[in-house]
Amino acid sequence: MSIKTTTLVMLSVLSSASLSGCQNQGQTSVAQYKDYSMSKSHKGRMVSSLDNFDNVFHDNIVWAFNIGGESYTATNGVLFSPYNPDFTTLVGHTDTVLGSQDKALYQTFAEGDFNFERTLENGTYDVTLLFAEPYDTPVGERVFDVIINNETVLKNVDVRGMRDGKAFSALDKTFSKIEVNNGSLSIKLQATKGVPIVSGLIVRKHHANAQQWQLVWQDEFDYEGSPDSSKWNFDQWPARKVNDEDQVYTNRQKNVRVENGTLIIEAHKEQYDNGEYTSGRIHTLDKADMLYGRIDVKAKLPAGRGTWAAIWMLPSDPYKYSSTCKPNEDWQGSTTCDAWPNSGEIDIMEHVGFDMHNVHATVHNKAYYWINWEQRKGAVQATNADKEFHIYSVEWSPEHITMLMDGTPYFSYKNEHQGWQAWPFDHPYHLIINLAIGGMWGRAGGPIDNTIFPVKMEIDYVRMYSNS
Prior knowledge:
By secondary structure, the chain is mostly beta strands. The chain has 2 domains: about 55-205, Galactose-binding lectin (Jelly Rolls), CATH 2.60.120; about 215-465, Jelly Rolls (Sandwich), CATH 2.60.120.200. Helices cover about 5% and strands about 45% of the residues. The chain has helices at about 55-60, 105, 160, 340, 440; strands at about 30, 45-50, 60-65, 70-75, 80-85, 90-95, 110, 115-120, 125-130, 145-150, 150-155, 170-180, 185-195, 195-200, 200-205, 210-220, 235, 245-250, 255-260, 260-270, 275-280, 280-285, 290, 295-300, 305-315, 345-350, 360-365, 375-380, 390-395, 400-405, 410-415, 430-435, 455-465. Strands 3, 4, 5, 9, 12, 15, 17, 22, 23, 25, 26, 27, 28 and 32 form a 14-stranded mixed β-sheet that branches. A hairpin with a 2-residue loop joins strand 19 (about 255-260) and strand 20 (about 260-270). The longest helix has 8 residues, at about 55-60. The radius of gyration is 22 Å and the shape is globular. The relative contact order is 0.18.
């Protein structure tokens, strides 16, 4: 498929302070993703990042199998070959699949003991497994572990539970940087209750293709105090304003500050403004609004049940596709204004503390969101996300939105040209970084653990790029 040239549009007039460190942006030096601990002194460098998502998969694919099904070319350009497991595994078919642009990949499946082993050149690989619960199996009745090269990489997979209790919904799980040292790759699904199920698998080399990106905006947090007001805005909100979240968002340095070269968003258990918790939420509205391009955020995530950290984007004109909103209505948290989901949302990274080892990416729009169980989303295994910095990225073009972690693509959404209801991503958005406490998802794994406070999210840098 052809590569679309992307552009990044800054709606505001960027001051010299906003572009500090970008004086060398015309240079051709490249920072490779394998060295993503790049020094802050290397401002203005261009990042060698991934090409369009479909081409990345095509170039680096070792195997892509449609288990129990036929050959199929996915919307991201990956060609899946048929794969029939051995006689110990049953092969089934379902007509109903929700939450995917490639439903044919999830309509067939293997059910039972799944053992996949093939010779493979030693090296580093990414493995993606595709699942969908094809029956009305209750949550908790089909649970299994994923074992790759004799190491349990994910325990207690409950496909229906991981899709919010909905059967038939597609679920993708990516496992990054799998090391092959003995010339073979083995993938096993081991039941703890019921029998395992799987619909497809992808194995690709862990390698970032070279594509030049032009750095156009950044914050390296090489100062002290409050976030740079020429780049960031604060949301100051009461508890329960959105998503039934428990925290009050403040602009205090206690909750949001820059120190020792890092942006810190810190949540506290305290009585404040009729709330039980405080935290921070900042954004770039009218200071860095993007239409197509790439964003990298290098972050260390919080730990503990009740945390809900997010790096995400909302439309800078939320009323672009709304139909029920009053002029300048406060649409966030509104029950009458349909700016959300009509005008869209891009979740680059979401992480909840009760599910420490998974990072999630999602797009929301009128056609596909949680109300109709057609939400498009993906997840990647993120070991030590609270102890190590990782780079969470989005690449956004007129044809694709792709999420990546440390250069590994794990979710893609394609523009099918079916109107704004499915693709409202044709107008500028801005970046948001926040640490919520509780809320509908943060409390989904149980009550907030009050022993974790204070708890923080750390950001090493934020960088925005256009396609060079």
